[in-house]
Structures are given as structure tokens and as C-alpha cells.
Amino acid sequence: MSAPLDALVGFSCCRAGSVSCTYDARASQVNHLGDPVIVHSRVKGTQLVGNLLGDPSERDLFVYLPPGYEESDRRYPTAYLLHALGSSAQDEIAPKNDGQRWVTPLEDVLDPVFGRMGTAPMIVVIPDGWCRWGCGQWVDSPVTGNFEQYVLHDIIPHIDGTYRTIPDASSRGVFGFSSGGFGSWNLSSRHPDVFGAMAVLSADSFLDMTHKFMLYKYLDSIWPEAPDGPVEGNFWAEIVYNYSATYSPNPDNPPYYVDLPVAFPSGELLQEVWDRWLRFDPVVNVHDRIDNLRSLRGIMIDAGSKDDYNLHWGHRLLSHHLSEAGIAHEHLENPGNHGGRFQERYQVALEWLSRVLEHA
After folding, report:
1. Which of 225, 251, 278 is the last residue of a domain?
2. 92-122 b/e (C-beta count within 10 Å ≥ 16 → b)
3. What is the pLDDT of residues 163-213, one digit of tens each?
4. Which of 128, 222, 277, 339 could make an SS bond with 89 (beta carbons 3.0 to 4.6 A apart)?
5. Cis status, amide bond into 265, omega within 30 of 0
6. SS3 of 12, please?
């Protein structure tokens, strides 16, 4: 049985329309009956302990409780939102908005979904996948931490034990944008017994086309110096080391504990290392996960047709492979670039997930 919100000591609640303010959950009577609520807690990540970057294992966790949750005793499906590289759970809730792009607080994205859009209510869970080099990519790595296991063994049991969820794969979905979309593919295609549906938004895919060039952008950015770890403010250095830490970690190669897939100064592609990256590529591993994918309740893939990293081609190829295998899925394209419409696509994904997941 879940505790009432006014008994959750150590949690904080935000009423929709006031994410910039936090209230102690013991004083949650400030919340109007029927309003959605965002609950913040800190979760000990047993699966993140000992990561070689030394990042904290205790993490933020945000849970959006839909309108009517506090007044009912019903159980709800859950949708897990995985954030992108360079973001965090906190950034999803309250974006910094100190750059060129305005990003809406998440409550203003979710409220219309379960309000004027008329989507059947769900609990939305926002775990934290941040690492000091960008993002743990929601995969297991001794360098960044075992983020796949963290979601499976730390987050989901906590959520199902704390809130009135329907604790079954048929009522649990996952979605995210960019690295979050990649993580959604990884978790659902590997664990259909945990996540019954996935909405994959502008996900890292077709790495031979969309990511290989980054290796050379990185070398150009530091030339003629040799690679020597992430360089603060150098996007290409940070992203290449982040991907290497998650796709080709090497605990026996200090001080950065990664194998880079390109040689310096020749620029030769180190195929053995690159193949380690490709094992994470959805357009490659789709072939090994056909039975898992066939068992899902739904697959949605969506990308902007003007994606800055050409990820729409990764999605097109992934859709092609799924169709070849006879796996039903929805393949959508929108007129956006990489990230310009990601919050709108969150809304599309949630409406779709609510339709394919089982409700009580």
C-alpha cells in the first residue's frame, strides 16, 4: 500500500503551476484537490556505487502523479521518461533556460496531456541518468555506472512499492528523446518482461552514419595535441569520451578508463573498438532481439526529418528492419530538427503509450 502524500517525510511536492516552489510533503494540503503533483525524492542507487568517475550514487527521482491520484484508490500505468545527454532529472523538471532555446518546465508539458488532450491518466517517472561527462546512456558501464540495472533494480521496485502502480510490464512503458530514446530502446528491447512498450524519440542509431564523424570532429578540435580526456567546453571531446565510457569502457586503461575507437595521429578507425560501439546500435542489435520485440505491446519511433545528426535515417533504417521482420510498429516523422520539438514529441509519446498500455 502506498503512503498518502502528506506522510512522505523527506519528499517534496510541487503543485502544477508552481514547480519553481517546493513544499514539504508534510504540508501538502497546499495542493488543490484533483491537481497533478510532482513528488521529489532521493534514491540510493545501489547499482551506481563504485563507478570509476566517482559520480554520486544517490540520485534525484521525480514522480508526476496525475490529476485525481490523491482522491482515488485506483492503480495506474507508469511511463518512465529517460532524459537526454547533457541533461538530468532536475533539468527536465525545471530547465535552466540560460541559453538560446527556451524549454518549458515539465509540468507544463504533462498537464495538457492529461487535461485538455484527454489522455487516460498515468504516473510519469523521471529518474536521473546524469554523469559528469554527459549521460550514462542508460546502459551498464563500470566507468559511468550500471544505469540499466539501476532502473531495473533500484528505481522500478521503489516506484512500485511507493505508489499505486499496476506492477506489470503490460502497464509499464518507457520513452525518451535522443540518448533517452536510445535508453528506451535498450531497456525495452532487452527486457520486454519489464517494459511492455517503448516510444523512441530521435534516438542515437545508425552509428556508422550518425556518430562516426564525431571521432574526427574531436581530433580536429584538439589538433595537433593528442587525446587526453574530456576538455571542458569542447563538445566533441566531451561527447566522444562520454560515448567511449559507456560503449567501450576499459577499467584497465587509466586515467580515463576508455578505449577510443580511433587512432592518433593517423585517424585509423580501430574496428575492434568500433564494433563494441555498434553492439549498442539499434539498427544492429535489432536482429538479435526479434523475439523480444515481437512480444511488446507497442513500438513507436519518431524523429524530425531535419535532424541535425541525421538520426531520421537511423529511424528509417530501424523501421525497415522491423518491417522486414514483420514486427508491428508506428514510424513517425515530424518537421523538426534534433531537439527543437522534443517536448511536443513527449506529449505525442505519452498519448500513444496511454493507448497501448493496460489500465485498471
Report:
1. 278
2. bbbbeeeeeeebebbbebbbebbeeeebebb
3. 999 999 999 999 999 999 999 999 999 999 999 999 999 999 999 999 999
4. 128
5. yes
6. strand
- Among 278, 305, 326, where does a domain finish? 278
Give the domain CATH number at 146.
3.40.50.1820
**DSSP-derived secondary structure for 186-205:** HHHHH-TTT-SEEEEES---
What single-letter amino acid sits at 208?
Answer: D
Task: Give me the number of domains the chain comprises.
Answer: 2
CA-nearest of 54, 113, 126 to 87 is: 126
Q: Distance between CA atoms of 211 and 310, rounded to whole angstroms? A: 9
DSSP assignment of 216-229, as one string? HHHHHHHTTSPP-S
Which of 35, 38, 31, 49 lies closest to 13, judged by CA?
Answer: 38
Distances in whole angstroms, Cα of residue 130 to Cα of each of 135, 180, 313? 5, 11, 27
Distance of CA 56 to the CA centre of its chain: 18
Residues 7/21, Cβ–Cβ less than 8 Å: no
Q: How many angstroms separate the CA atoms of 269 and 351, rounded? A: 42
